[in-house]
């Protein structure tokens, strides 16, 4: 009997694997996901704009602009066709370009004013911009290209569809980093205002050297808007001292939003351009750091305090040998400190950078014309030549910006997949704020993770909450936008755009422990089910919430709460376990059985065994039916932990249940388990409930422990143990199954 019972366990494992796989497919069935499929080739290169006020998602594609409903991106949408003229396409082909390149790839969509968007496209290697009337208020369905006001897009949109660019709109002016010419020689940071423009110096390799623009953002310095700064994030080439192999570094550069350039010199050129290096590295064992130098994506996480967003960078190594990815987080405080620190200086290009220790002119180069400078200068045009000359020759700060904790918050060095995109949501949980990272990969998966910093040990724990496959076929994810208001992600690839809810608490099961162990800061157990967590004060009624993201301590949070009443079916002549695990391991447990009005203590024998997990009944008899009460005693404190009603079924009835399961077999993910062991839930047989019950039984930890558990409880002999070990790996090491299983199972990995 004992071996048979253990074997039943192993059979159950197989079923669990199947259930996990099927859960993976339910993303779609649960209505958590909607996919907008664009026309063939429309999203080869594209831009996306989230418009939360008018509840739409604007996508600029190839010769087309879509306006999708934010709530349901699959709802009927609006679109504008905006192809290049035949003449432009003809010219483009004449220049020897390929047909697919000779189209209008809309690379930039920005809010322009309250009624219009600005959209710019490559225009078959002849960039163009247009204003798109979107209306406001009752005109929400409007989408109209102002076709009689098409402007040149030079300096706003690159020529080449593949060319990297980054833009920000601020007070009606466009700040953009891009290559401005056909041959991609002239990289520049531009500002295009109503009548003016300002840019980096042409051909100045000190300012920009083969940059790849990744992102930009306007961040205020203080309450004076005249001090607002625009930050650009990009990579560029740096020649090493020997002048040989050029390395790639990540930079953060900044300019004053109100920069007017100089009057006699630096006319229409930035008078405030400064830059420094962004570091993301891990210390190596022999003092040699591994640097992640190539910025892939950047996310500016805005907070209530607009002046101090958190900056997240997704980096990869540039090494040909070692491939890895890291996410680093930066404080504005540290970024500002670098810009307010010493300037860098070197005598010749083949010398090392040193601290510039000469006199720094006033007003400090790189500062804005504002009250901070005593209100002495109303515009940078009034700055002394000395200041302009200094900033022109010293654009580089000596201090690099180190990440928070001086290390990545997340590392991915396993190889195999590439990480491409990053978005971050700030979530308030019972035990503090968490930054939930959504990381796009090159194989359609979005990883949902949190990282927890342990101050005492100075370690970072990475918790993978979910792996969301957002497209049915593997495709690189090229954009992730997040709507905090709607709890939705909008994930783009060349195939289309997927909308997905950032949480699906119900997926973690309805038990308190499941919910708690998931450690998802969006979710908490509300006494009935795992549901969206709302901080106190928002829905003050819902006070009774169990959540512990930091430690995932389900025992502390949930025991004594869960399973206070339970119905368990046992099969005659078969065995079952009546679970009872008290709050504390130190507690002693006593079982009582209530039959009719009598309540008496259960005395163990060779058929009824008390285990650390509960009461094990072997070879159940009809007379065992009744209400079992588990009481724990600790420090004189007696408490009822569980009341289990045991009903005993005869085998005929069980056969019936089994066959019922076979009837609706096929591909249905809700196939009932093959046998009713260890306990058949009272609810209509749902695989998830059952999975949960089983997980509770084996204590949520490594499945391997079940083997030990079996040994302990049933005293499996050595010979039999070998047999069991041979069976165990059957599903656990099927690579596909394991990967898919991870879609559901929370995994906890230790970072460094
Ligand atoms: C999903 O949505 C469809 C249509 O909107 C609805 O019929 C179906 O019941 C929903 N399914 C779930 C699991 O909510
Ligand atoms: C917005 O800009 C467009 C294009 O320049 C212009 O036609 C329109 O009048 C502007 N709307 C407002 C409200 O200023
Ligand atoms: C540019 O024009 C817009 C309106 O068209 C105005 O709101 C904005 O202040 C102007 N910007 C500058 C720098 O003059
Ligand atoms: C249970 O086992 C006993 C003998 O061990 C047998 O007499 C009885 O018929 C069995 N009951 C069922 C329902 O199989
Ligand atoms: C217990 O139940 C399972 C499933 O119904 C069955 O395969 C097994 O033979 C039963 N064991 C005993 C001892 O009756």
- DSSP E strands, number: 44
Mean pLDDT: 80
Per DSSP, what share of the residues sits in E-state strands of 2 or more residues? Answer: 25-35%
Which outline best applies?
elongated
Profile the largest sheet: 5 strands, antiparallel
* Percent in helix: 10-25%
Notable traits:
single chain; 752 residues; alpha+beta; Immunoglobulin-like; Methylamine Dehydrogenase, Chain H; 4 domains; five-stranded antiparallel β-sheet; 44 strands; 34% strand; elongated; binds 2-acetamido-2-deoxy-beta-D-glucopyranose
Detail the topology: elements first, then pairings.
Blueprint (H helix, E strand, L loop, with lengths): L1 H28 L3 E5 L9 E5 L4 E5 L3 E6 L8 E4 L4 H9 L11 E6 L4 E6 L6 E6 L10 E2 L5 E2 L13 E5 L2 E7 L7 E6 L4 E3 L12 E8 L9 E11 L6 E11 L17 E4 L3 E2 L7 E2 L2 E8 L8 E7 L8 E7 H9 L3 E2 L8 E2 L29 H9 L16 E3 L6 E11 L2 E10 L3 E10 L4 E11 L9 E5 L4 E6 L2 E6 L10 H7 L4 E3 L4 E3 L21 H5 L6 E7 L4 E4 L8 E8 L2 E4 L6 E4 L2 E4 L8 E9 L2 E13 L1 H13 L23 H12 L5 H11 L3 H10 L1 H4 L2 H7 L5 E4 L2
Parallel strand pairs: 36-43
Antiparallel strand pairs: 1-33, 2-3, 3-4, 4-5, 6-7, 7-8, 8-9, 8-10, 11-12, 12-13, 13-14, 15-16, 16-17, 17-18, 19-20, 21-22, 22-23, 23-26, 24-25, 27-28, 28-29, 29-30, 30-44, 31-32, 32-33, 34-35, 37-41, 38-39, 38-42, 40-41, 42-43
Helix pairs in contact: 1-9, 1-12
The chain binds 2-acetamido-2-deoxy-beta-D-glucopyranose (NAG) (5 copies).
Subcellular location: Secreted
Protein name: Semaphorin-3E-like
Pfam families: ig, Sema
């Amino acid at each position: 009997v004992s071996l048979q019972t253990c074997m039943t366990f192993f059979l159950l494992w197989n079923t669990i694997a199947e259930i996990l796989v099927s859960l993976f497919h339910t993303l779609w069935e649960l209505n958590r996901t909607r996919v907008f499929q664009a026309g063939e080739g429309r999203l080869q290169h594209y831009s996306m704009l989230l418009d939360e006020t008018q509840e739409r998602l604007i996508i600029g594609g190839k010769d087309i602009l879509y306006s999708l409903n934010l709530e349901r991106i699959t709802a009927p949408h609006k679109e504008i066709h905006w192809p290049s003229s035949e003449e432009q396409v003809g010219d483009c082909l004449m220049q020897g370009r390929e047909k697919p390149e000779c189209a209008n790839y809309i690379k930039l969509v920005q809010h322009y004013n309250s009624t219009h968007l600005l959209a710019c496209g490559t225009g078959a290697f002849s960039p163009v911009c247009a204003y798109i009337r979107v209306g406001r208020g009752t005109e929400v369905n409007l989408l109209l290209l102002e076709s009689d006001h098409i402007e040149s897009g030079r300096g706003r949109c690159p020529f080449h569809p593949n060319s990297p660019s980054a833009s920000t709109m601020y007070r009606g002016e466009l700040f953009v980093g891009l290559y401005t010419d056909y041959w991609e020689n002239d990289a520049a940071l531009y500002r295009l205002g109503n009548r003016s423009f300002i840019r980096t110096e042409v051909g100045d390799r000190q300012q920009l050297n083969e940059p790849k623009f990744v992102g930009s953002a306007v961040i205020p310095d203080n309450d004076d808007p005249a001090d607002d700064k625009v930050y650009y994030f990009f990579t560029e080439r740096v020649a090493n001292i020997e002048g040989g192999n050029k390395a790639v570094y990540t930079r953060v550069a900044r300019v004053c939003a109100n920069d007017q350039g100089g009057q006699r010199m630096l006319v229409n050129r930035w008078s405030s351009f400064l830059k420094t290096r962004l570091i993301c590295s891990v210390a190596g064992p022999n003092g040699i750091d591994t640097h992640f130098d190539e910025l892939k994506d950047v996310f500016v996480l805005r907070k209530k305090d607009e002046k101090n967003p958190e900056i997240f960078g997704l980096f990869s190594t540039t090494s040909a040998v070692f491939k890895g990815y890291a996410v680093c987080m930066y404080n504005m405080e540290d970024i500002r400190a670098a810009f307010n620190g010493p300037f860098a200086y070197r005598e010749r290009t083949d010398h090392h950078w040193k601290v510039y220790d000469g006199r720094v002119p006033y007003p400090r180069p790189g500062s804005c014309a504002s009250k901070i400078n005593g209100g002495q200068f109303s515009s940078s045009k009034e700055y002394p030549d000395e200041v302009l000359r200094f900033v022109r020759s010293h654009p580089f700060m000596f201090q690099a910006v180190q990440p928070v904790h001086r290390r990545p918050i997340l590392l991915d060095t396993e190889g195999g997949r590439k990480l491409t995109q990053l978005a971050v949501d700030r979530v308030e949980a019972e035990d503090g704020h968490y930054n939930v990272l959504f990381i796009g990969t090159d194989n359609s998966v979005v990883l949902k993770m949190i990282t927890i910093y342990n101050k005492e040990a100075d370690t970072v724990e990475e918790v993978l909450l979910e792996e969301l496959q957002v497209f049915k076929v593997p495709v690189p994810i090229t954009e992730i936008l997040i709507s905090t208001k709607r709890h939705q992600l909008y994930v783009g690839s060349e195939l289309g755009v997927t909308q997905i809810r950032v949480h699906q608490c119900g997926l973690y099961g309805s038990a308190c422990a499941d919910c708690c162990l998931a450690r998802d800061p969006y979710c908490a157990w509300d006494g009935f089910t795992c549901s969206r967590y709302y901080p106190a004060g928002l829905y003050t009624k819902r006070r009774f919430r169990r959540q512990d993201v930091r430690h995932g301590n389900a025992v502390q949070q949930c025991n004594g709460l869960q399973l206070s009443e339970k119905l368990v079916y046992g099969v005659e002549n078969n065995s079952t376990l009546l679970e009872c695990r008290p709050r504390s391991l130190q507690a002693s447990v006593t079982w009582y059985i209530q039959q009719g009005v009598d309540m008496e203590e259960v005395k163990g024998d060779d058929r009824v065994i008390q285990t650390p997990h509960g009461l094990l009944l072997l070879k159940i008899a009809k007379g065992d039916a009744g209400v079992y009460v588990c009481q724990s005693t600790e420090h004189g404190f007696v408490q009822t932990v569980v009341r289990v009603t045991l009903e005993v079924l005869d085998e005929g009835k069980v056969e019936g249940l089994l066959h019922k399961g076979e009837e609706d077999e096929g591909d249905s993910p809700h196939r009932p388990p093959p046998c009713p062991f260890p306990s058949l839930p009272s609810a209509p047989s749902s695989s998830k409930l059952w999975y949960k019950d089983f997980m509770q039984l084996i204590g949520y930890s490594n499945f391997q422990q079940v083997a030990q558990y079996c040994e302990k409880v049933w005293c499996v002999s050595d010979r039999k143990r070998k047999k069991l070990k041979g069976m165990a790996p059957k599903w656990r090491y099927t690579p596909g199954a394991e990967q898919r299983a991870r879609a559901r199972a929370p995994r906890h990995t230790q970072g460094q």
